[in-house]
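User: Could you walk me through two proteins back to back? I'd like the raw sequence and the structure tokens for each, with a short line separating them so I can tell where one ends and the next begins.

Assistant: Of course. Protein one, sequence then structure:
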Amino acid sequence: MLLKTRVLIITAASLASLVIMGAFGLYTMRQSMYEERHAQLNQLLDFADSQIRYFYSLEASGKLSRQEAQERAKEALGSQKQGNNYYFIRSLTDDTFIYHPIASRINKADDGGIQTGGRTTAQINRDELAKSTNNKAFVLINTAKPGDQTKALYPKLNGLLKFEPWGWMPGTGFFVDDIESEFKKKAAIFLLVAGVLVTALAVLVFRMRADILHQLGGEPQDAAESMRRIARGDLNINISLQEGDSTSLMASLKQMQLKLNNITSTIQENSTALSTQVDQFERAAKTYTEEKSEEAFSELLRSVNKLGRISDILGKSISRFRL
């Protein structure tokens, strides 16, 4: 595998890890914020339940009439209104508001509008409570904010109770568009940080790759293959170098290849010369044996001297392999 490919894989894997970790962190943050709202709603529902049951107990004991007990319960819940957060009471059997901070909506049919899926808000509330095992339900709807002239719809998480003795469905809720806004803000920050980190990582990794390639003078597998072929005695390989490269591993291999080629060529030339000189020596020795003349002896001595010089040169050439 090319070093470039490995670098791309490392960069891609790092990017994927950052994305997965960041996405999981963002998802966990979003879920924890929703769970926090669920916990707050649960506490508010427990408060409403305790208030209603308290006044119901006064009715049951005869201390208050049903109408008085219900009015006192409505007052207790109505006093908890803070901004857009308030209690409301719907009927369990129809779309009527039994209590609402906006007086004009009380005792009037109000289905809350059509939600995704075709059901009305009131019907969704009744359906979710019907499935509940603890007389509580949590419903995410889209509705307009009080006083918002644009009539834009925002996500709202409602918590609902079922109080069958009075046929009431008390509830309260929080708009959760702030959670989505916070989530998008955190996601944007994450993407920015992830982008910076990935860019820094990519620069670092590619710089490291460039340094490695500069030191090697090519891909690692090319250098390894060149060394293997030279080790096997193949000195005719083509070692490509980048322009101006004289210090890399590949450049050193190229120099070694040239040196080995020169040495082997010298050895081959000297071996040929030695073989020729041996033939001349044999002829000179034969001539001297036959003639026993001074001239033949002089020729024999010259052949011996030449043979010695060539042998010495050949020995030096061979000794260069040990350098």
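----
Protein two, same layout:
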Amino acid sequence: MKTVQVELPDKLAAEVEALVGTGWFGSEGELIRAALLEFLRRNRTDLLEGFMREDIQWALSRKEQSA
């Protein structure tokens, strides 16, 4: 497992601490993992489409430059 260190705004950090403190999550790491997984679940298709569009645009620009 990889460790990632993040900086959070004070307000968001307080919300994280509150959710852990009230027992919604066992740790800050557990909450961050759950939030990231949910973000990816909701946005995976849009993110992949964006990456594909960027790749296609790059390939087309390379083709135009070589023509």
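The chain is about 75% helix and 0% strand.

Let me know if you want the two compared in more detail.
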